[in-house]
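Holo model, beta-D-galactopyranose. Inputs:
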Amino acid sequence: MNIKSSCRAALWAASLAPGMALAAPAAPFFFYDQSDDFINAMVARISDESADQGLHVTFNDARSDAGLQSDELHRDQSPSILVVNPVAASNSEESLLLAKELSIPVIFFNRPPEEGMLDQYDKAWYVGVEPRKAGIYQAHLMISYMQDRDGWDRNKNGMLDIVLIKGEHSHVDTVSRTSAFKQAMALTNNELNIIAEAYCDWDRDKAREFFRTTVSSLGLKDVEAVICNNDAMALGVLDMLKERGPLPGYGSNGYIPVIGVDGIDEALEAVAGQRMAGTVMQSPRIYARALVGLALQLLEGGEIDDSALGAVVSDDRFVEIPYEVVDRQRAQEMVKENSRR
Ligand code: GAL
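Output:
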């Protein structure tokens, strides 16, 4: 905790004592769906970070229901700020209008508002990733896997045969991660052959069932890798593979290379234990620090100090959360760090 935030925390604690007038700065957070594994990890980190930095937070879970999020957004008559992970474009639009009407800041995160919306209001911000980078890093993990293993082309057809498991249809992360992965692979001399693909909405169970159906119709011999737009779906693939037990001829661990995105704890353990070939981390800790820090700074007014946010701030009010490539070695370090926390 830095000095500024520890002072804030002390002031906040003092403000909770009976009779004291000073109240902690407060920010309502609106999540699209807290049952989403990555969002859930973020909620936990935001709780810790807000306690550390002295921001009073309230959490609203829209459970993927745009109508419910709309009600939640209008529940508080006089919020000082809105921190919104929109369910749908309609929610981004109404958050922006509401913030404008009340003349308060609005921070969008994880799911960006429609193009051009941030330009309409100088107190509107976006905290998120640059999704194309995740697809490029997944290709990087795939290529280094292939370089390490001469036998990756198990069916000897001269192509890399993959199953592609995608997130929500039209979600910018789904579209950009997938296309960037394909483009990055096309730059190498390896031909990519997509033998099956589906949208599984970031969901572990849907991915497991899709992979089960794929394997029962096509068999496993042509599946040389599984690329997933996130870790929850990669873990769904592992669930199904685990039911079958180790696969003969698939190396010492009997596993197919499965690559995800997010770096949630269970996936880090799977990468460390070589059940997954890698993931691309978007750290909930970095997200939380940036979101809570930005909310506090906006509530205080004045210039934004990006050094306190731990993320890069661009002129168009985009706070970029960095990705990190996680291979086995890095995952082992991260699992160790997590166990010390
Ligand atoms: C992505 C993340 C997914 C899911 C999605 C929700 O960035 O990789 O796991 O949480 O956001 O918008």
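The pocket of beta-D-galactopyranose is lined by residues 36, 38-39, 110-111, 167, 173, 202, 230, 232, 261-262 (CB under 6 Å). The first helix runs from residue 3 to 16.
Archived with the compound record.
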